[in-house]
Specification:
6-stranded antiparallel beta barrel; two-stranded antiparallel sheet; mainly beta; 12 strands
């Protein structure tokens, strides 16, 4: 695979994947959902890095939204193993709604399962100055698929 775009704030990367040969199944591009509404059903698919040898599938729904670093993050009722960060969360039509993600604690280079998602310092903004709120050993926040569209456009790719 070739990395063709990265958005560190959204914890996203766009990869161009080429078949290994003529015997490989035809690859199809991922269709990205253009909207996500509260209560929409989701199916998360990933390959856990910890203790897993198979793909995992988990179902849930969009339970809310939060804003951080100028991104409208999608909250979900799905408890996704931290090893599945980078997998996909899809709607009933098979469109990518978001990508399970882990974000580091502000001021700390280590990735953890937490994110500043409320105004903990009382300055009226949710930003890197707020405390990282622990999400336990599971991810329930998704980087929005719409960020991938914007990233693709910024790199001159046709989404």
């Amino acid at each position: 695979a070739e990395v063709v775009g990265v958005d560190e704030n959204a914890d996203l990367a766009i990869l161009r994947i080429s078949p290994l040969g003529n015997q490989t199944a035809k690859l199809l591009p991922v269709t990205i959902a253009t909207s996500a509404l509260l209560g929409d059903g989701l199916t998360a698919i990933g390959f856990p890095a910890i203790g897993g040898e198979s793909v995992t599938v988990t179902k849930g729904e969009i339970s809310g939204f939060s804003n951080f670093l100028g991104i409208r993050w999608i909250k979900s009722s799905i408890s996704i193993s931290a090893g599945n960060s980078g997998g996909g969360a899809f709607n009933a039509s098979g469109q990518l709604v978001g990508v399970p993600t882990s974000l580091g604690v502000p001021g700390n280079n280590e990735t953890t399962d937490c994110r500043p998602d409320r105004d903990t310092n009382g300055d009226g903004e949710v930003d890197e100055d707020d405390e990282c709120v622990s999400m336990g050993g599971f991810i329930n926040t998704l980087s929005p698929g719409s960020s991938a569209i914007e990233l693709a456009k910024s790199k001159g790719l046709v989404p």
